[in-house]
Give the backbone structure.
Amino acid sequence: MKTAAEYGGPVSGGGMAGNASSGLVDRLDGGLGDAIDDRVAEVLDDYIAEGRLDGRIRPRRSPAGFATIVAGGVAAVLLPWCLILAATLPGTYQASHWKLAWVGLDCATAVAAGLTAYFLHTRNSRAILTAMAAGTLLLADAWFDVSTAAPGFDHTLSIAEALLLELPLALCAFLLASRELRRASR
């Protein structure tokens, strides 16, 4: 093993920092340095024997690297798309499958709420996902109820429904998901 002088480090003198680094190097030159070298060699041997270290160099990636890129890309594309839609969509539109759209949205909300109840009853952590889905569907339901309602009584009823039912239930679903997430992470 090389000494501090062979590495070009201070051997003695050089003030307080020189003495401290010299003392540390001297200790590493002794048994402590050899013990560290031996332990590192053992760990590397274990990694190689288990196939976890095969000598190939792999690029560093964050655990959610690809998902982060996709989510960022979706946001980057959708924001300008919203501006295009706001400028080009007609003020009114005759929907061919109006019943199917509303029945489908309400059925999806009911399924998400039912699954949340079931998962809560069985103490399954999937309740977090279904509660988030139910809350999101309730927000979408409130949004489309209010924004597609005809002026007058229908619009007033949609606003009342959103304020008294859908938005409070969505908030409860999000709070429930948050509580369950904290419970699951303990």
